[in-house]
């Protein structure tokens, strides 16, 4: 059973490595993702691997740039989420009650709003584009990370190594940075990979609705929306972004689950 999970983790990791290479080099490897290079709606061929879209742009270059957008947004959101979530959790666990209480009540209150609706509201306030999408998704992502970290800190703070460090005169900041957080990196890394999948899906959803990444920059979500309009006549324009989006979600989930099993000794 463990060997089967490891196999899926390896396959997911290989796919993600190839996706990263595609995102870095693919948008300009053959044609520019914004350039009209041929007749519209051409099928896949040796010259245009994924064909062309309604404006004659290379679909391969646009799918590759969509991968760059998805990874950039996803990684940026996870970095912000980890930073804010860890900070809120440490404050909630170790700060005085008059500070910790309001911070944790704010964290709990954030769960009352559906993530995608809150993201739409935030984008409505800040405008459309890549940066507002990152801000909106980061605001909806950090509360779950804060709750996870606080739960883990609460379970670790009475362990023997923590008590010994306190007895030696360790300050709270030293205790958190040197003793507690290193115990959490495995589970945080695994959870972040799974959360990254959800972030990429959310970004694609916002772009599909027309309020995410804006033209002329291509996103998998906006490409799916454009392909949906012509799917009866040119189904490959819908197929390629859907394939890459779904495969990326699966790969991140498999890799995150395998990473948790590998790094967390308490996991099955």
Task: Describe the protein in words.
This protein has helices at 2-25, 59-94, 97-110, 115-126, 130-156, 160-167, 172-208, 220-229, 236-263. By secondary structure, the chain is mainly α. The protein has a single domain, classed as MetI-like fold, CATH 1.10.3720. The longest helix is centred in the C-terminal third of the chain and has 37 residues, at 172-208. The chain is elongated, with a radius of gyration of 22 Å.
Characteristics:
mainly alpha; 268 residues; 73% helix; single chain; 0% strand
Q: Can you describe this structure in just a few lines?
A:
This protein is mainly α. The protein is 73% helix and 0% strand.
Q: Which residues sit in consecutive blocks of at least 5 with pLDDT less than 50?
A: none
Largest sheet: none
How many distinct helices?
A: 9
The name of the CATH architecture is Orthogonal Bundle
**Tally of individual domains:** 1
CATH domain fold name: MetI-like fold
The oligomeric state of the chains shown is: single chain
**CATH level-four homologous superfamily name:** MetI-like
User: How confident overall, as mean pLDDT?
Assistant: 83
Instruction: Tell me the number of strands.
Output: 0
Fraction in beta strands:
under 5%
Radius of gyration: 22 Å
What distance separates the N and C termini? 10 Å
Helix content: over 70%
């Amino acid at each position: 059973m463990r060997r089967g999970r490891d196999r899926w983790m390896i396959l997911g990791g290989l796919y993600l490595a190839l996706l990263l290479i595609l995102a870095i080099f693919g948008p300009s490897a053959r044609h520019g993702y914004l350039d009209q290079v041929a007749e519209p709606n051409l099928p896949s061929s040796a010259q245009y691997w994924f064909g062309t879209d309604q404006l004659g742009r290379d679909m391969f270059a646009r799918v590759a740039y969509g991968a760059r957008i998805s990874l950039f947004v996803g990684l940026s959101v996870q970095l912000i989420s980890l930073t804010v979530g860890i900070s809120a959790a440490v404050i909630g666990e170790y700060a005085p009650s008059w500070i910790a209480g309001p911070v944790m009540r704010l964290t709990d209150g954030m769960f009352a709003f559906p993530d995608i609706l809150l993201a739409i509201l935030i984008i409505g306030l800040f405008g459309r584009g890549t940066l507002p999408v990152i801000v909106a998704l980061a605001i909806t992502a950090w509360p779950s990370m804060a709750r996870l970290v606080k739960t883990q800190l609460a379970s670790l703070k009475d362990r023997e190594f923590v008590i010994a460090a306190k007895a030696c005169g360790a300050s709270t900041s030293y205790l958190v940075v040197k003793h507690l957080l290193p115990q959490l990196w495995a589970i945080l890394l695994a959870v972040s990979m799974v959360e990254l999948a959800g972030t990429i899906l959310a970004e694609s959803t916002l772009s599909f609705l027309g309020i995410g990444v804006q033209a002329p920059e291509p996103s998998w979500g906006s490409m799916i929306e454009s392909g949906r309009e012509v799917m009866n006549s040119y189904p490959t324009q819908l197929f390629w972004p859907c394939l890459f989006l779904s495969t990326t979600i699966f790969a991140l989930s498999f890799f995150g689950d395998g990473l948790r099993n590998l790094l967390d000794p308490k996991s099955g």
